[in-house]
Amino acid sequence: MTVKVITAKALHERMESGDPPFILDVRNPQDYDDWKIEGKYIKSINIPYFDFLDADEGVYQLLPKGTEIVVVCAKGGSAMMVAEMLDERGYQVSTLEQGMLAWSQFYTPVTIVERAGLKLIQFHRLAKGCLSYMVISQGKALVVDASRHVDEYLKAAKQENVEIAHVMDTHLHADHISGGFDLAEKTGATYYISSSEMEGAQRVFEPLEKHEIIRFGTVDVKIMAIPTPGHTPGSISLLINRQFLLSGDTLFVGGLGRPDLGGHAREWAQDLYETVFKTISPLPDHVWVLPSHFADIKEINEAGYVGAQLGEIRKNNEIMRTEDIKQFTECVTGTVGSTPPNYKEIVDINRGATDVSVERATELEIGPNRCAVHHG
Amino acid sequence: MKADVIVDAKGLSCPMPIVKARKAMEELEVGQIMELQSTDKGSVNDFQSWVKRTNHTLESMDEDNGVYRFYVKKGQES
């Protein structure tokens, strides 16, 4: 028997099937606790590869026979060593090609809505919990919060036979490197972001605050840029056809964005309060909130995407009803947790202040996303 | 620190630095010191984790120009 090597895409397909594989993650426990492959039906176990070197029978008893085991490590080398050991013992094994490195760069597009004049696609970058969007109307497309691997959007545009005309970032991202500027450059599209997010930036951009309404495709597709500060001062949300709110990192399915990454937690928390109780409160319950992150894989709904109606979010999140500003501020500044890894350097890159190699970019992005905050 | 054995794992990637280190440790007497040299950044956390899970002790580690050096004292067999 030889050990099969599967791609991240193949692993994802298996995860979505009725017969998901068993994942054996052989990285060290610290890395596993920090960040691992998750899915609704996924069972995974962590046994570091070096534990297999001192062959202890007890280790093997933790693994199922008769179920496919996918061995995962950081880059693929250690997983292969362990997989070969398991293969010799008669287990059904394969390894994830390039390990977590590949998983961190895997994207899957999900169509949220498709009707005459409007198609809305949500791109899941599962390992990072990052969501980005393509809004399509009559041969033109708008891409929102593009991640660094811009080929994913170019591929989708080709498949949909559309031209990417507008590219936007809802805010200056701190947890991942934006692909917005790069994508706009490659396609000739206009790149929009709020001016206040780009102070001191060397990049050419179209100030988003100058465009209250952006229309494209059929007149039906009306995109309103609504300032929703709180996560960052220049954060905006986009309201599409008064029905879909691309809420960036301001409002999530399970809570609000964290206000602390600029070092002005209390000040930005006040902005967040204003946003929740002045800007978002008049929006009706039936508006779909489509954020730029999920904090937990369980936020992927029955239809396969991350989103919830505003009414539901209001009902499930006490913070949305906490009108006492003092209590609100305590709550959003008190529960922020660890900062995203390398966020200061990532912010500088997204502002165009520093340039890094692809290798360095990959390294900076490895690890979990920590932009969403859960207010239990 | 003076080592009783030096393991050169420079240029090797995961899992080789630990595989080689483990083999070298087998040859040592309790209390003797192994020096591991590695250029694989990924091995740094793994190596510390491995030492913790065995009965050995990480005496010290340093980094010079991309080369990591770990000094490990062999512990009692468990």
Core attributes:
heterodimer; A: 376 residues; alpha/beta; Oxidized Rhodanese, domain 1; Metallo-beta-lactamase, Chain A; 2 domains; seven-stranded mixed β-sheet; six-stranded mixed β-sheet; 20 strands; 27% helix; globular; B: 78 residues; alpha+beta; Translation Initiation Factor IF3; four-stranded mixed β-sheet; 2 helices; 31% helix
Describe the model.
Chain A has 376 residues and is an alpha/beta fold. Chain A has 2 domains: 4-102, Oxidized Rhodanese, domain 1 (3-Layer(aba) Sandwich), CATH 3.40.250; 105-334, Ribonuclease Z/Hydroxyacylglutathione hydrolase-like (Metallo-beta-lactamase, Chain A, 4-Layer Sandwich). Chain A has 12 helices and 20 strands. The longest helix of chain A has 16 residues, at 265-280. In chain B, 31% of the residues lie in helices and 33% in strands. Chain B has 2 helices and 4 strands. Chain B has helices spanning 16-27, 42-53; strands at residues 5-9, 33-38, 57-64, 67-73. Chain B has a 4-stranded mixed sheet with strand order 1-2-4-3, covered by helices on one side. In chain B, strand 3 and strand 4 (67-73) form a beta hairpin. The radius of gyration of chain B is 11 Å and the shape is globular. The chains are: A alpha/beta (376), B alpha+beta (78). At the A-B interface, helix 2 and helix 4 of A face helix 1 and helix 2 of B.
